[in-house]
Design goal:
Layout (H helix, E strand, L loop, with lengths): L1 H25 L1 E7 L6 H16 L4 E6 L10 H7 L4 E5 L22 H15 L7 E8 L4 E4 L7 H4 L3 E3 L4 H7 L3 E3 L6 H6 L5 E4 L3 H4 L8 E4 L8 E7 H5 L3 H35 L3 E4 L4 H8 L1 H13 L4 H25 L6
Helix pairs in contact: 2-10, 4-10, 4-13
Length: about 350
């Protein structure tokens, strides 16, 4: 009897030890990086993503989250993911102009009305055309801001003439748009913009209105020129090192895909919510909003038309057929119209 009990105890201990070793071997430890401030809603959403993956895998996946640029800055984010400095990273394509030429179509002034619409359109486009420029990573999701709006520190801009010669922060293809409008584009990383505005190094910035609150630009800008008719956005990406993705089991990959889809939808609505909050804060501080008149708006839209033409030429020089590029633009316009109707139908609030 005593031998039987001892044998049973040995078996139990062996099974428990073996199970513990297996669990230890199955544990997946990853790193995620984000350059946005720790308290920014997008940083909090990325943190939610990491925790949700952990919860849904019952602790099998544990992600150490580095927010606020503590691991990688926005310019180095993509290469940092490819080389394995981080396993996942969030940044946007304007920081690395030329790296994502097909997706840079979303940098063009195509009339994007809101972040929710823009994100749906960018997702549709990515899924349909599957640009090869992303082949060295696994894309968890893409998401595009609401329309970029001019904010200035001391000079109200009501006409194109008012913008001429102003130093405006811009990155990527947005620099061409600022030039076309008569401004002087100054490339700066976002963490450096507030100080540059406060010291008058910049006259203004063209960026989504959420920044009035979440980058505190409402403290240093006095005027907003709502040239939303141009509808230029900034496309963010959340990507994963491809080797790390490939070694995940199908079940774990499924969790990542499901959480990524939910995070993208949360972010789509968040763009519009943050834009509304930014505008409300700006007005509460006495900021002045300037809406382009029906006469002035077409002048701005005509001024930036050459930027679209130059993009087409550039892509043709890279081997893309002009008919294909026209197809991209037509598809985007159609999806904007579709998703704009859907946003209204679903009652999702937006500024424009």
């Amino acid at each position: 009897m005593r031998k039987s009990i001892m044998l049973l105890l040995v078996v139990v201990v062996f099974v428990f030890a073996t199970h513990s070793l297996v669990r230890g071997a199955d544990l997946i430890k990853l790193k995620a990086a984000n350059y946005l401030p720790v308290t920014h809603p997008m940083s909090l959403l990325t943190g939610w993503f990491c925790e949700e993956v952990k919860n849904r895998t019952k602790g099998q996946v544990q992600i150490t989250y580095h927010a606020g640029g503590t691991l990688l800055n926005p310019v180095k984010m993509y290469d940092g993911v490819v080389t394995g400095i981080t396993d996942m990273g969030l940044s946007h394509i304007q920081y690395t102009r030329g790296r994502f030429p097909v997706m840079e179509v979303f940098d063009l002034p195509l009339g994007f009305p809101s972040g929710w619409v823009d994100t749906q359109v960018a997702t549709d486009f990515f899924n349909k055309y599957k640009p090869k420029e992303w082949d060295d990573v696994h894309v968890l999701y893409v998401t595009t801001t609401g329309p970029l709006i001019l904010q200035t520190i001391s000079k109200p801009v009501k006409t194109l003439e008012d913008l001429k010669g102003l130093k405006i922060r811009a990155t990527g293809q947005l620099t061409d748009i600022i030039k076309a409008l008569g401004g002087l584009p100054i490339p700066l990383q976002m963490p450096d913009v507030y100080d540059a505005l406060a010291r008058g190094v910049l006259d203004g910035i063209t960026v989504d209105l959420s920044t009035l609150k979440y980058w505190k630009f409402a403290e240093v800008t006095k005027y907003v020129t709502a040239h939303w008719q141009l509808g230029t956005g900034i496309t963010f990406y959340y990507v994963m090192n491809k080797s790390k993705w490939n070694v995940l089991s199908p079940d774990v990959q499924k969790v990542f895909t499901e959480v990524a889809s939910e995070a993208r939808e949360k972010q789509a609505a968040l763009w519009d919510q943050m834009d509304i909050e930014g505008m409300d804060l700006f007005k509460s501080k006495g900021g002045q909003v300037i809406n382009l008149s029906d006469i002035e708006a077409p002048k701005w839209m005509k001024a930036v038309e050459p930027v679209i033409g130059e993009y087409k030429k550039s892509m043709a020089s890279k081997g893309h057929k002009e008919a294909d590029i026209d197809g991209w633009l037509k598809y985007i316009k159609e999806r904007i119209e579709y998703w704009q109707k859907e946003q209204k139908k679903r009652g999702i609030p937006s500024l424009f």
